[in-house]
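User: Can you recover a sequence for this backbone? Please restate the input before giving your answer.

Assistant: Of course. Working from this structure:
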């Protein structure tokens, strides 16, 4: 921990936070921003007047980073350091540093729109640009002005160079750049796209296991189905290897649908003379650090939900990742020692076909849930059609579609005011249309 680059910038960070309500921190991979910023602020007294909240996009990250911080501070998890995710809250009255998903923080704001329990809100990994994160940035921008006298502080961390864009959104707030700590990563590309990325990943994983020195391996797949298929095939292949010809192997899945107790297994060190394989979705691209990863296999794909407002239908599509995502995946191999990244696509695909960055979720999803949430806040200074967002929705049609959906299911009235049913529905972490189907027995 003592060698993490961000620790060298502690005085500068604290000085900037003291003098500015909002600070953007561009922390490169390996800088230590997710675990150290909260501890810095705690050491300097920022938790005296309230809790330091740190958002993490995936649940598994909120849990694992909270565990790490509690360990570093030598406190019991759930006391001074805790976490809150859907269906699980490990905090108490003593909690001073609280890791939580952005969805949980949004739901907390329904009962306390000023988030008065918090003295600092850190929006970590904001570059992932989830819908919840974009809504939160709009809300905290409003809160900064409201709680100016109370020294409410906001920090927003990015791992990419979009920091200047965020600075402009927050009226020219300062941007601090913190270098990362990365070991060199050798990148290998295939000559062409494989017909099956599952089979190609399996073949490459076995080849590395048989021929490369010790070191853990992280394999990026698109979703739970592909992960389970690869785990099953890999276990069968390993059983068929000649006994004693290669070290043992343990293979763990890692995706958002796994219960927390099974997610934790992926972070446990393997037994002696045994290589650990982690087959994960894109939740392992950022925040999560699996100690000992030396080899990364990148299929080049991600599963993404897309919404078409003209049809009112979602599709779950396997699409190519962006160059930012590809770089994040490769960097996982260089966190603790030099590593190797095997990309199952040609370098021409990376340069010519991948987008620079992923499309923000707000531009590819239904806004019905977010509009209902904002309506439920009952804040006179919020106009749904002009709500301040880092990036606007893809079209005016998206907002009008959301309002139409909400009116048709009777959660807003003809004047756009939220109904009693709408207030109840806003408290549920589900799409409004899904909730209505459940209420109506699936008939509507």
């Amino acid at each position: 921990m003592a060698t993490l680059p961000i620790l060298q910038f502690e005085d500068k960070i604290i000085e900037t936070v003291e003098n500015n309500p909002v600070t953007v921190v561009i922390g490169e991979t390996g800088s230590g921003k997710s675990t150290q910023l909260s501890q810095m602020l705690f050491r300097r007294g920022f938790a005296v007047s309230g809790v330091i909240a740190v958002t993490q996009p995936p649940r598994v990250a909120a849990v694992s980073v909270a565990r790490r911080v509690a360990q570093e501070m030598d406190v019991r998890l759930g006391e001074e350091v805790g976490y809150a995710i859907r269906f699980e809250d490990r905090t108490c009255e003593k909690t001073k540093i609280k890791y939580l998903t952005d969805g949980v923080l949004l739901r907390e704001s329904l009962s306390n729109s000023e988030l008065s329990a918090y003295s600092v809100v850190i929006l970590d990994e904001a570059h992932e640009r989830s819908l919840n994160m974009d809504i939160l940035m709009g809300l905290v921008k409003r809160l900064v002005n409201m709680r100016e006298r109370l020294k409410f502080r906001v920090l927003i961390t990015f791992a990419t160079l979009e920091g200047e864009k965020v600075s402009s959104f927050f009226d020219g707030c300062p941007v601090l750049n913190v270098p990362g700590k990365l070991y060199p990563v050798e990148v290998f590309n295939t000559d062409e796209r494989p017909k099956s990325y599952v089979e190609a990943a399996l073949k490459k994983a076995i080849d590395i296991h048989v021929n490369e020195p010790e070191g853990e391996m992280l394999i990026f797949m698109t979703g739970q189905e592909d992960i389970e298929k690869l785990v099953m095939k890999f276990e069968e292949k390993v059983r068929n290897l000649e006994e004693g010809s290669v070290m043992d192997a343990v293979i763990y899945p890692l995706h958002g649908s796994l219960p927390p107790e099974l997610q934790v297994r992926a972070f446990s060190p393997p037994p002696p003379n045994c290589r650990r394989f982690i087959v994960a979705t894109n939740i392992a691209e950022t925040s999560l650090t699996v100690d000992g990863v030396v080899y990364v296999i990148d299929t080049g794909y991600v599963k993404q939900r897309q919404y078409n407002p003209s049809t009112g239908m979602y599709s779950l599509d396997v699409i190519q990742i962006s160059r930012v995502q590809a770089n994040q995946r490769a960097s996982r191999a260089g966190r603790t020692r030099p590593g190797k990244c095997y990309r199952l696509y040609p370098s021409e695909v990376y340069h010519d076909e991948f987008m620079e960055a992923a499309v923000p979720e707000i531009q590819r999803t239904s806004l019905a849930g977010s509009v209902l949430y904002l309506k439920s806040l009952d804040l006179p200074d919020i106009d749904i059609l002009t709500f301040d967002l880092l990036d606007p929705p893809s079209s005016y049609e998206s907002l009008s579609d959301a309002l139409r959906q909400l009116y048709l299911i009777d959660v807003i009235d003809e004047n756009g005011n939220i109904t009693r049913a709408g207030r109840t529905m806003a408290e549920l972490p589900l799409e409004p249309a899904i909730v209505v189907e459940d209420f109506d027995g699936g008939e509507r």
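That completes the design. The longest helix spans residues 224-240.
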